[in-house]
Amino acid sequence: MSPEPTLEAPPRGVRPVRFTATARDAGSAARAGRLDTPHGPVETPAFMPVGTQATVKGLTPDQLREAGSRMLLANTYHLALRPGEETVAALGGLHRFMAWDGPILTDSGGFQVFSLAQRAKITDHGATFRSHLDGRLLELTPERAVAIQEALGADVAMCLDQCPALPAEKAEIARAVDRTIAWAARCQDARRRPDQALFGIVQGGAHEDLRGRCAEALIAMDFDGYAVGGVSVGESREEVRRALDVSVHLLPEDRPRYLMGVGRPQDLLDAVHAGIDMFDCVMPTRNGRNATCFTDAGPVKLRNAAHARDPRPLEEGCDCLACSRFSRGYLRHLFLAREMLGPILASIHNLAYLHRLTRRMREAIRAGRFVQLRLDVLEALGP
């Protein structure tokens, strides 16, 4: 296990994480940059694999790093339930607990306010849940969300927000924006760790005035970074693009911009075009566990009979473990035989694909050809 880096409080006036734009694309809002964190730098645009319960399903830290992962995401709600943030803290904090020595971002649990709405009671004070594990009550307030994340010890913590289920009336979305702003102020007041960044989350659906009001209020609170929320709840690609169009240009140039819960290659290309720096999504590993793999020519469904005797790799030129060692025919066999190696290899490939795509985007931005790269990749991916 790699030694845990020593965390020291930053000097006065220095943020726990610092974003520097290193290149900008002349034909779009795309930018390449560097996010410096207490556990090392991350080149952006960057994709973060989701390790909800302090593990990216089926993959070791070494496999993640070999695939190209540099920063991971874990979840406040799930880790507070099991094993409990006190246990994680007692075992050395989240980095040591999961044997990952790179940067970690923790989601506040706000998405669970949305996804477990039938188990939750939401008020201005916070959200009260019935645990999906044993039915016990869990209260998640802005103060509690910050305290859990500080005990976990992630490099970046997220404010607790309210993400309304869509479609929704504008009045309902406006109430969620008001609550998100109020909760963000309480999160800012509750933070204590000088070595942990805190990001605010912009809500507001596709309404420019609501997004603008939310962004203005959060910017006045001077967060270390800003996320665009409420765009991973079943919208079409066009709806995601519209939310980006009315959100990203409002955010400060000197802070990282994070699009939450988005992982389709097409959406990543659109978001970087709009000026987004960071992403997370369960899609690459969830799709991998279900025998669907990303390629430059579109998805490959490994259970299809057409792959039964196919000696080719998933993708020519990919140097991931799945492509460098195994054929499509063998991978299909693993899934039909229900062997655990199949989902592992497919997940490795999907993460390697997204990391390679973000690397290509960084290189294209630096070379001034991002717009053409985006058009080329979208055309190859197809509808």
Please characterize this protein's 3D structure:
The protein is α/β, with parallel strands linked by helices. The protein folds into 2 domains: 18-281, TIM Barrel; 286-375, no CATH class. Helix content is 40%, strand content 17%. The protein has 15 helices and 16 strands. The chain has helices spanning 61-67, 76-81, 85-90, 94-97, 110-115, 142-152, 170-190, 208-220, 237-245, 265-274, 283-289, 321-325, 328-336, 341-367, 370-381; strands at residues 18-24, 31-37, 40-44, 46-49, 72-75, 104-107, 120-122, 127-130, 137-140, 156-158, 197-202, 225-228, 257-259, 278-281, 292-293, 300-301. Helix 8 (208-220) links the parallel strand 11 (197-202) and strand 12.
Keywords:
single chain, 383 residues, alpha/beta, TIM Barrel, 2 domains, 15 helices, 16 strands, 40% helix
Please outline the helices and strands.
Elements: E1 18-24, E2 31-37, E3 40-44, E4 46-49, H1 61-67, E5 72-75, H2 76-81, H3 85-90, H4 94-97, E6 104-107, H5 110-115, E7 120-122, E8 127-130, E9 137-140, H6 142-152, E10 156-158, H7 170-190, E11 197-202, H8 208-220, E12 225-228, H9 237-245, E13 257-259, H10 265-274, E14 278-281, H11 283-289, E15 292-293, E16 300-301, H12 321-325, H13 328-336, H14 341-367, H15 370-381
Parallel strand pairs: 4-14, 5-6, 6-10, 10-11, 11-12, 12-13, 13-14
Antiparallel strand pairs: 1-2, 2-3, 7-8, 8-9, 15-16
Helix pairs in contact: 1-14, 6-7, 7-8, 9-10, 10-14, 10-15, 11-14, 13-14, 14-15
Subunit structure: Homodimer. Within each dimer, one monomer is responsible for RNA recognition and catalysis, while the other monomer binds to the replacement base PreQ1.
Keywords: Glycosyltransferase, Metal-binding, Queuosine biosynthesis, Transferase, tRNA processing, Zinc
Region (RNA binding): 261-267, 285-289
